[in-house]
Amino acid sequence: SVFTDERYAASVGIEKKSAILGSVPKNLNINQQNYVIAGAVSYHQYPSEENNGHYTAFVYDTSCCTKKGFIEFEIQCFKNRFDMVITPYHYLANLLDHRFRGQKLNQDQVEEALEYASSRYPEAMPFIIQYQAKSSPFREYLFSTENIENVSPISWWHSLQNSMNNVMFDLSMQVHTAVASSADIEKLFSTFGFIHSKVRNRLGIEKASKLVTIIKSLKSKNSE
After folding, report:
1. Which residues are paired to 36 by β-bridges?
2. Which range among 46-50, 71-75, 117-121, 128-132 shows the weakest confidence by mean pLDDT?
3. What DSSP letter does each residue of 8-41 carry, written as one string?
4. CA 90, CA 61: separation in Å to the nearest integer?
5. Domain boundary assignment for the chain
6. How far apart are CA 183 and CA 32, in angstroms?
7. Taking a C-beta distance cutoff of 8 angstroms, is the pair 204, 195 a contact?
8. Bigger pLDDT: 173 vs 198
9. DSSP 34-77
């Protein structure tokens, strides 16, 4: 972290730099509250105007960082932090979201996503290529403004379930239900711990997973 490096503490203009860096944790907090991982990628890259767009500048625009007084090692810290938070799996989720389609990823990030998919989900690759090309079964009308604005990624992929193999469908469900919030993940572990402590080891993985989903859904409805 740039904050724990003694060179940063001794650098010129530390107060101004720290004020600029204040947008980073703010972005992270909003990100965790509101997004699954596909949206998290776009938010990290292109934060809203109210967050001043600083995180984008840190990661993608070295000249902007230099103008603001940041030196090379500080800029590298920002990039390292981004690489730790956003992985090829995140890029793949963004690519497979019909609202984003990886349009704001750079070429290296798209290649990372495709290489990851090719190594982990080779049977899904023909469908991913067809999806990128907007060829059957991913027809042009599926990417209309109306569908982008009103259809969730889960519903969008569900509508095409019978047009793809199980590997592609399961992958689409995984990437669009993976939450960006560590708090939500902790809640899932907590719920699993509650179930496991009650029934010991009599449950298999599949049954335990279903029970976690049911209890999480019930808690969500009760809180509404």
Report:
1. 179
2. 46-50
3. HHTSTTHHHHHHHHTHHHHHHHHHHHH-BHHHHH
4. 21
5. 79-177, 194-223
6. 8
7. no
8. 173
9. H-BHHHHHHHHHS--GGGTTHHHHHHH-HHHHHHTT--HHHHHH
C-alpha torsion sign, points 221, 93, 29, 81: positive
Q: Which two tokens mark 7?
A: 């060179």
Tens digit of each residue's pLDDT (9 = 90 or more) over 174-217 = 988 877 655 555 555 565 565 555 555 566 777 777 777 777 77
For residue 83, give both structure tokens. 């690489």
Assign 102 to helix, strand or coil. coil
Q: How far apart are CA 206 and CA 224, in angstroms?
A: 28
**The model scores a pTM over 0.85:** no
Per the DSSP assignment, residues forming a β-bridge with 203 are none
Q: Are 115 and 88 in contact (CB under 8 A)?
A: yes
Measured CA to CA, the distance from residue 104 to residue 173 in angstroms comes to: 22
Q: Considering only CA atoms, give the Rg of the chain.
A: 21
Nearest 10 degrees: Cα torsion 41, 46, 47, 52: 150
Confidence of residue 165 (pLDDT cuts 50, 70, 90): very high
Beta carbons within 8 Å of 78's beta carbon, 6+ residues apart: 2, 58, 59, 65, 70
